[in-house]
Amino acid sequence: MKTKHNIYTGAAQQMSKVADNSVELVVTSPPYPMIEMWDEIFGAQNPDTLVALQENRADVAFELMHAELDRVWDEVARVLVPGGIACINIGDATRTINGNFALYSNHSRIISHFISHGFVNLPNIIWRKQTNAPNKFMGSGMLPAGAYVTLEHEWILIFRKGGKREFKTSEDKQRRRESSFFWEERNVWFSDLWDNIKGTKQKISADSRDRSAAYPLEIPYRLINMYSLQGDTVLDPFLGTGTTTLAAIMSNRNSIGYEIDDKFIEIIADNILSSSVAEMNDVIDRRITAHKRFVSERMQSKEIKHYNEYLDMPVMTSQETDMRFVYLSSISGDKHNFTAEYAATAPACMKIKIGNRKQPASVPAGTQIALTF
Length: 373
Hints:
Layout: E1 2-9, E2 23-28, H1 39-45, H2 48-54, H3 58-79, E3 80-90, E4 93-97, E5 100-104, H4 106-116, E6 119-128, E7 138-139, E8 147-148, E9 153-161, H5 170-178, H6 183-189, E10 193-194, H7 218-227, E11 233-236, H8 243-250, E12 254-259, H9 264-273, H10 277-298, E13 306-308, E14 313-315, E15 327-333, E16 337-343, E17 352-353, E18 370-371
Parallel strand pairs: 1-12, 2-3, 2-11, 6-10, 11-12
Antiparallel strand pairs: 1-16, 3-9, 4-5, 6-9, 7-8, 13-14, 15-16, 17-18
Helix pairs in contact: 2-3, 3-4, 7-8
């Protein structure tokens, strides 16, 4: 069992190496328009952007930056399969230009473009970023009228290309069932507010910019499991340090990444090849351990009627009974092409037992279970 991961250098406005209707999911975090650290990258794509900033024409600069992102979103529309999903992590910006402090609503501008191009905007997620800054206020401090609200969240925008994705063959239907997630995970993942995810350190060694702007690994990992199947292909047009690729590897998905800054290719390759297989598999173990704890507590008061034979443990719904995990065995490759190999069988540590016998398909309330980790 293998997945393939291709890394391309170049601007995502023309992803010529990605075929039409070949990608099931896009997960990305683009440069944020009107955030100063991205001015040069946007200016390199369209010099008029820097001219507009120099002339204090903020609205013009904002629109020119988004015009470059629009070209990428058009490519996303081309490569996504019908019913495919695009997940875009974006923050709004605040900036003072010519003495005027203002908000630049990146998320609403992106939503407008996708909707105008035939996408369906599904319920979005607010990622509330943790901050410990004691002086996070902006503007006039404690004096009214001139004080400004601080931005402590980012958006994860969710779009679907047309109608619902169809699973017509028996193979695809089964693959969908095997890619399901735990009932209690759904309750957390599909909330519109994510406030339990910490940010990622931004310092990197590349000469081209001081910060990577990488998002936490848990964000693409959740999104990949929420909106794709094992064996699907995930695309990140703004790959950065390769976080989306790592999440795809951990989730038994294929991936494609584009990165405009060739200085990041070494960083991406190092992040992939130096990642510990054991640590990546530990994410699965933690999910299973959390589920064991959940069902153990649940069974003290309520009956659990469903059982997953493969995982050898109770589950809350019939949709989880075919759920499977595969464990990463190895990662190999060079700067641009990587292969991940997986174990097809579940390790013995995943078993839940009552004494020395397997639990029945329906587990009565009050049953005591011994958890083996």
